Amino acid sequence: MQELKENNVLQPAIPRSWNEETKPHKFCPGCGHGIILKALGEAIDELGIIDQVVFGCDIGCSLLSWDFFACDSVQTHHGRTTPTITGMKRANSDIVGIAYMGDGGGYAIGSQHLFNAAVRNERITVILCNNCNYGMTGGQMAPTTLPGMKTETSPYGRDVNETGYPTKGPEMVAAVAPEGAYVARGSIANVRQLKGFIKKALENQLAGSGFSFVECLSSCPTNWRTNAKQTWEFVEKDMAEYFKVGELRIPQAKEG
Amino acid sequence: MKRVFMKGCEAIAEAAVRAGCRFFAGYPITPQNEIPEYFSRRLPEVGGVFIQGESEVASISMVYGAASAGTRSMTSSSSPGISLKSEGISYCAAARIPMVYANISRGGPGVGSIQPAQMDYMQATKASGNGGFKMMVLAPSTVQEAVDMTFAAFDYADRDRNPVLILCDGVIGTMMEPVVLPEMKSDEEVAAIKNSKKWAAIGHKVDYANRGWIQPGNWSTAIMQQGNEEAAVMYENWQKNDVQVEHYQVEDAELVMVAYGISARIAKTVVDKYRADGKKVGLIRPITVYPFPYKAIENLNYNQVKAILDVEMSIPAQMLEDVSLAVKGRCPIETCLCSGGNLMKKEQVMDAVAKLI
Hints:
The complex is a heterodimer of chains A (256) and B (357). Chain A is an alpha/beta fold. Chain A has a single domain, classed as 3-Layer(aba) Sandwich (Rossmann fold). Chain A has helices spanning 33-47, 81-91, 103-108, 111-119, 160-163, 169-176, 191-206, 221-224, 228-242, and strands at 53-57, 72-75, 96-102, 125-130, 133-134, 140-141, 182-187, 212-217, 246-249. In chain A, the strands form 2 sheets. In chain A, strands 2-1-3-4-8-7-9 form a 7-stranded mixed β-sheet, with helices on both faces. A two-stranded antiparallel ribbon of chain A has the order 5-6. In chain A, helix 1 (33-47) crosses helix 7 and helix 4 (111-119) runs parallel beside helix 6 (169-176). Chain B is an alpha/beta fold and 357 residues long. Chain B has a 7-stranded mixed β-sheet with strand order 3-2-4-5-7-6-13, sandwiched between helices. A 5-stranded mixed β-sheet of chain B has the order 10-12-11-14-15, sandwiched between helices. A two-stranded antiparallel sheet of chain B has the order 1-8. In chain B, strand 11, helix 10 (261-276) and strand 12 form a beta-alpha-beta unit. In chain B, helix 10 (261-276) crosses helix 13 (346-354). The termini of chain B are far apart.
């Protein structure tokens, strides 16, 4: 049940874990980061773990979440959120360590860390926003840029002969992570499902079962130069066609 | 006092554990492998954590994380590995995160050589990463000193909330010597140190104003400048309060050598040789190479000192620039150098001195 505020307007519920002082947030209109972080905030609230969370953010647009939550936070260098949160979690095993990053941070400059943290089954949760480009720097080609897609550094469209195909992160993580890992790909096009994935990823860490990783398909209309309809079509159809949404690894339920 | 016979690298690791270090992340590189190896055996015994990172970059980031959570943390490497760590070192300095690291340095740029050298002086003392930050840099010339400095380094790091560097050459790192180890800090002391770090990010209640917030920079130019100004004041205070330097037979010396680390030990032998012949030769040994003991050199009596001899295992000479800043042109400065992993020979220093007296 939600209270009707002034002028009979239904105020959207703000997750308790958010820092209200910094809202509205700093992301561009139409950006998917706010939706992902809302799903994350609600998952944190529902699990009641805000006093355990240390939230780490990468460089790039994901950095703009540095003051997004009211919980302990750490800013890291580009690609290094995964090892930084790894260090924090290993030094203090009772925290819930969340590493938040973009596709560049996770799949390009930080790929060694994502890969090896998964191999070691670090008990941390990595949430990665995939928006097919480097947003903050002005829309350059990313590991996730779709074939033929034009960006500032692929002005003739991504040529897969020269630059390869878009990185399938969850598939890679699922292939190398040991038993106990949780791996999924959600989308801002289905927030309820995305929140469910994020919640499971956090629960997997709380259970001490293994590494957990959720890639989130997201939007970047500013750099895609798309209107609302085109943006939504790109997220729902074009991206989802290449990047299949769903759970890739679910830990086996423990007996008893 | 119980003395034990230990290799430099292992003694550094044991001293760190005794100082309360409970987290180490590193990556293999010669000639410092005994440090991570020792930690991997030792830390589990005291409830600490050892991680072999996937790279130097990963290891320093893990240390940044563990130290941000309040745990006394350390990493180590050798020259090219230290270069890789520089981004994380800069982050620690920017976010004012205390941590200790050791550079068991190599003989040249690039991969260099794995033999002992003092080729990282400038990197260590002037710019260990982007952004103009400084660190206290301690340069041991014996294994005992490496032990004492490592133990003290964690206190300096916590006092200043800043990284501290143990700048070692391969001789100190790989040589075995008898040492007296400091007393092991109790679990209670280690816990108390950790709990005293109220700034650490370890999870708090929903409380934005008082949350742990590790910030290696700021988008507010005013706040960023303020942070840089505060750091600059700290660096100046080191120069006033924390300089460590050894004067050896300097009082009546007409020729003063300046050398640090293993070079200083060799230079000391040369002083003794010449003193036995009644020659007035002395040595100034910077123990902290940052803050550099400018005053010790500046305040020499230049009516008496005829020349300064800069002795270092680096070509080109690097410490020479700091020595020159202190001498201010008041007497000639000559150099006695070797490099590439070649150990300084006593005879070479003897000859260099002979030309000046």
